[in-house]
Recover the amino acids of this structure.
């Protein structure tokens, strides 16, 4: 059976995940294991049509969903470097080179300015595909610059977190970003500029311990893993079974860590509502 006929008629047999289909044509849902065409997935905001599982997407995908149609990327010139000459199984410089070639990104975060229903917004969005969305010095610097841009122009800031934690190949320079970004966000708060923190799957480690939990509004996508250490590490440490749904968005909201959970299909509308409520002191 040709892949064209399989695409036209839909996959019904147990052979549905064989390699007859070109790479990228079909997507297997991580949650319900069903197969959907990439076209179907994209038209549904990268949400599984069968079970509503929110597939991980990148920064540019979020920009396309949120902004009115046009946006300007800023601080693209900031590029990570192996200034410590760090090496574990392979040199950090090699990891950086491979990540840049694979993702066409300069680091694990991208900053853009645009409008949501004609209301200005600065968005700093993380990319898990770039070394696990790890927070290094460039991530911290771009967030700091995004805060400066928001204050200088009286524009609200939104950070979309998606991270495995601090980038340990940069040692203390990575850990310093926790204090740096937290201090900059305190300045933003003092200036009266709104900050919205959007947590997606996964948001862990030093990112959770710093800017991800400091928003005027903290909200998340459904079923996103959010925490400091992972559930496996916690379970092994305390030697006890964890509650069902532990560290997922729904669990955190129930225990007061989140303001609300938003379906990606309603994300733009909810952001528009927040921008209308939290008006910055300077007209944008």
């Amino acid at each position: 059976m040709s892949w064209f006929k399989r695409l036209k008629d839909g996959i019904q047999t147990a052979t549905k995940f064989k390699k007859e289909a070109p790479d990228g044509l079909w997507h297997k849902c991580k949650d319900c294991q069903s197969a959907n065409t990439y076209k179907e997935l994209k038209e549904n905001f990268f949400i599984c049509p069968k079970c509503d599982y929110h597939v991980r997407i990148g920064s540019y995908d979020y920009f396309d969903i949120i902004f009115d149609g046009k946006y300007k990327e800023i601080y693209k010139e900031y590029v990570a470097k192996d200034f410590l000459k760090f090496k574990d199984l392979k040199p950090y410089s090699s990891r950086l080179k491979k990540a840049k070639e694979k993702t066409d990104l300069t680091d694990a975060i991208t900053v853009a300015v645009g409008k949501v229903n004609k209301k200005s917004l600065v968005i700093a969005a993380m990319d898990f595909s770039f070394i696990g969305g790890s927070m290094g010095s460039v991530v911290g610097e771009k967030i700091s610059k995004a805060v400066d841009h928001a204050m200088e122009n009286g524009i609200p800031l939104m950070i979309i977190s998606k991270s495995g934690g601090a980038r340990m190949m940069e040692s203390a320079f990575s850990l310093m970003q926790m204090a740096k970004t937290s201090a900059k966000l305190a300045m933003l708060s003092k200036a009266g500029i709104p900050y919205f923190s959007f947590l997606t799957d996964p948001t862990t480690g030093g990112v959770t311990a710093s800017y991800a939990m400091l928003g005027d509004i903290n909200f998340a996508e459904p079923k996103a893993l959010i925490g400091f250490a992972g559930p496996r590490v916690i379970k092994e440490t305390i030697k006890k079974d964890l509650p069902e749904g532990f560290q997922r968005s729904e669990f955190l909201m129930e225990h007061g860590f989140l303001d609300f959970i938003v379906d990606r299909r309603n994300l733009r509308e909810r952001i528009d509502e927040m921008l209308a409520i939290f008006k910055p002191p300077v007209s944008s």
In short: The longest strand covers residues 195-203. Residues 1-22 have pLDDT under 50 and may be disordered. The beta strands are 26-28, 35-37, 71-74, 109-116, 119-126, 157-163, 195-203, 217-220, 260-261. The chain has two domains: 1-55, 56-277.
